[in-house]
Amino acid sequence: MQTIEIQKGVKVGFEDLLKGAAQMGTEDLEKFMDRLGSMLARRKAPKPSERELELLKMIYEPLKAKTQRRYDLLNAKLQVESITPNEHQELLTLVEAAEGHNADWLKALIELAQLRGISVEDLMVQLGLGQSKAA
User: How far is the C-alpha of 127 from the C-alpha of 22, rounded, in Å?
Assistant: First the structure.
């Protein structure tokens, strides 16, 4: 029978480990199972390719903070109608930059979903970018 070394020099048989788990409270057993499930998923998950890593970097790369701050400031001025014509033109340029960033983000999502053979919606859930279907 296979044994599992819990600590250096402390070995427990598989059946003994199961008996110990059977004695756990439901909440602790659920936590234990969740951690085992995560461990198993990590072992089974294929290593991401270089391209997948590049795409993930693109997906998680936010709009530059300086650009976002300036956009927010000019947009606030637009909302209260205190924007100058030069600022309005700058805002339009920033809108184009933000839209380009969003388009690149979406292209990266689509390509990664295709590489993984899943829908964009499922990929977003996997990456923590969307809500679960069960919600």
Answer: 33
Does residue 115 contact residue 52 with C-beta atoms inside 8 Å? yes
In a domain, 132, yes or no: no
Residue 13 φ then ψ, to 5°: -70, 155
Residues 70 and 117 in one domain: yes
Nearest alpha carbon to residue 88 among 103, 101, 70, 62: 70
Beta-sheet strands, E only, within the chain: 3-7, 10-13
Give dist(CA 96, CA 109) in Å, integer: 20
User: Would you call 58 exposed, middle or buried from its count of C-beta atoms within 10 A (0-12, 13-18, 19+)?
Assistant: middle
Range of the domain at 15: 3-44
Q: Which tens digits make up the pLDDT trace of 61-110?
A: 999 999 999 999 999 999 999 999 999 999 999 999 999 999 999 999 99
Nearest residue to 14 via CA among 23, 1, 32, 24 = 1
